[in-house]
Specification:
Strand content of chain A: 25-35%
CATH architecture of the largest domain in chain A: 3-Layer(aba) Sandwich
Low-confidence stretches of chain B: 1-17
Strand order of the largest sheet of chain A: 6-7-8-3-9-10
Mean pLDDT of chain A: 88
Radius of gyration of chain A: 24 Å
Structural class of chain B: mainly alpha
Helix content of chain A: 10-25%
Distance between the termini of chain B: 24 Å
Oligomer: heterotrimer
Chains: A alpha+beta, B mainly alpha, C mainly alpha
Number of strands of chain B: 0
Order of helices and strands of chain B: HHHHHHHHHHHHH
Structural class of chain A: alpha+beta
CATH class of the largest domain in chain A: Alpha Beta
Number of strands of chain A: 20
CATH superfamily of the largest domain in chain A: P-loop containing nucleotide triphosphate hydrolases
CATH topology of the largest domain in chain A: Rossmann fold
Radius of gyration of chain B: 24 Å
Number of helices of chain A: 9
Number of helices of chain B: 13
Chain lengths: 369, 290, 265
Amino acid sequence: MPPSNDLAARGAGIELTDLTKRYGDFVAVDDVSLSIKAGEFITLLGPSGSGKTTTLNIIAGFLQPTSGQLTVDGSMIAATPPHQRDMGMVFQHYALFPHMTVAENIAFPLKQRKIPQSRRAELVQAALATVHLGEYGHRYPRELSGGQQQRVAVARAIVYSPRVLLMDEPLGALDKKLRDWLQLEIKRIHGELGTTFVYVTHDQDEALVLSDRIAVFNKGRIEQVGAPDELYERPATLFVARFLGESTILRGEITPDGIGVCARLLNAPDALPGGPGALVVRPERLAVRPADHLPDVGWNALPATVIGEIYLGSSRKLELKLPDGSSALVREQAGNLSDARRGDAVTMTWRVTDSVLLLDEPDVEAVLT
Amino acid sequence: MASTLQAVSRPATAGRDPGDRRPALLTLPALVALAVFFLYPLISMMISAFADPEPGLGNFTWFFGEPQNLQVLGRTFTTALWVTVLALVISYPYAYGMTIAGPRARAVLTLLVLVPFWTSLMVRTFAWMILLQDTGVINSALGAIGLGPFSLIRTQTGVVIGMVQLLMPFMVLPLYAVMSGIDRRLLTAAGSLGARPVTAFARVYVPLSLPGVSAGCLTVFISALGFYITPALLGSPTDALISQQIFTQVNGLLKWGRGGAMGVVLLGLTLTMITLLALTLRRTGKKVTG
Amino acid sequence: MTARLGRGVLWAFCALVGVWLVAPALIVVPLSFTSKASLKFPPDGYSTRWYEHFFTDPTWMSALWTSIQVALLVTVVATALGTAAALGLTRARMRGLPLAQGAMLAPMIVPGVVLAIGTYAVFLKLQLVGTLVGFVMAHTVLALPFVMIPVTASLRGFDRRLESAAASLGAGSWTTFRSVTLPLVAPGVASGALFAFVTSFDEVVVSLFIQSPYLQTLPVKMYASVTREIDPTIAAAATMIIVLTTTLVLVATFFITRRSSSAPK
């Protein structure tokens, strides 16, 4: 969709090359390289302390990298102070100026750019219209709800048509319902403006809904960068598989022929050098069959016992126990439910190509919980 | 480990880099002013104590050798002590009243404490001169009920009465600050455990209010030690306190060294009191929080 | 029953103490309108002759004018120095800053007479005795802690993300300070300025030493009059000090509470 808004801007491309940020012995950002395309919506996703906010603050200019390079549209901006970078930023707690009205808040960046009074008023109105707050210009921030304040913060950050908009967990303080709605709003605004959006969140659902691409952060490093479906279907690491969506993880020893799980050799979609590994399958790719079911060619199967079922309306979740004591999660779509009940002995089966073979990471659970 | 945690928590503030020293430059003008107009005077006073009229400890041997000086020191100390004790006895119930009063009554009580805060020391001391004079309001009031007349002005009693009133805000405010933070449900809890109200108050409330008591007493005591105007105007010249003696030595007799030595003694006494009370304050603070 | 009696006693006590706290200041006011040349209270008759005397006597008038001049200059200098220092102390990360902070609060605890004789000695050397600059600087040092405390408190309560926000929106550090930080910590700075004015306007002990017959502040003139001949002009001067500071405090309180209620958090 072509930009259709008065405030539309041509987005800038951002290039992070080998960025590192150290605090003494602690490495907050560890050799991060990332190429952000002009006009794309990219999300930096990760648990707290994973380096995503630090990376955002380096892009904004609030932090100086210890080493590495940062270019915007090809020019290095490491030495440019934040107020000359011409980027917009939406903060987690909005950071609206409490002593200014909504309109004054939004006019603030225009004043800094010496834009004439009359033009200023037009742009403020355009920004307010973009976030559907046309009538609220004369109010003070404290007179608005959290969701409205958040939209003012967005309006203030886009009113001067910056080529990059940085957002630091902008929906973190809002309740679920409002968040869902505002996600759609942010996505719409991105479509209207054409600005490059760099969005930081720890909420995987938010990342999936909003992003063109997602960069998953863990311990200061980027684990994987890709489109949401790519990350979901083809996680590159066990961390990504665990962090993004639900998954059933079958741990075992990788052999040249597959992976040994529960004293059985399972077929793997690809080969990895031997060692501890994990076969990852998304719950909706798993199926439950009677205990005596024999797998077709191209399918894997494991015996299991149903130990729990949760009915969710559009789907049903089954919790299975495998022979080695580990558990597996299966999701069945409504209209396609099996007869399995709690206590039943069953066969769990899935297409080999629906699984991903990954190296095991012993401490992945510790990072996530 | 601790440093790692710190490092993790810092970036979240999204400010400038940690370890930024440039803002420290902003303290320079104030520090220069303090060095020239505060530190330099104090140092030159100390130097004269040890070097005027001739180098040595002569001024201190003079000070501690004259019984009259030790009397002055003792009188200063007991006066300050009396003022502190009386101020505490009057302020404690008053501050307690402030905590249990309704919002309106509390506003009035607070205003009453703050009025002296804003009223010039000179003005209030002058008012006490009028009140305490032999034919003043207090004596005529006492006379009406068949007492007196007492001589109040130019006596230690007068000095103490005046100083207690002048210093009371410094006692009430820290007391109130601490007391308003005490959870009064603790008293109810103690009552439900079988303590009588008086016992509950003494065993639960009073210990919790101790940080305020020591802060208030410290402030009042050290202010009282160095008081000049009030004793000079309300007291008798024969019962002078140490600050009056310092004034006389320097301004009247031009004995800079002796005045300086007395200044050093007074300063030392003040700093000792602060250190002592800060130590006990820290200890009671620990007991209360831990 | 005993509880209620206890409360009654407590309230009676508080009321009595309240009267005791304000009455001394208040008896000065009727006294200043006495028609006699004595300080008998209550006065036998009323007149404004002591005010006439105050306003026609050149020594009283010049003392009043000196006090106002000194206090205003101290307000400006101490507020500027104290605010800058408070900013530095809350913003910089450096060893030794707590020490600097302690040093700036030290004038609060040093006995007035001790500082006074030291200042007198130094001022004799620097030829600052009896000068406006001398008064201003001596009072500034005393007023600094009273500026630092409220300004530091409001800076600590200030959300620094607002400064990051201003920077991201294109404001340089000076613009950010002027248009975001300063307006939001203004109540603290205003109370600091008020404290500075009152500290200077009330100061007696140091001023007694650094005065000259040609340059005296109002409290010094009052002190001198009280020790020499007592006459109700002092009561008139005292009343005017009360009125001036009370007005100032009321106006400032009104201004500060209005500012902070229109810009909370």
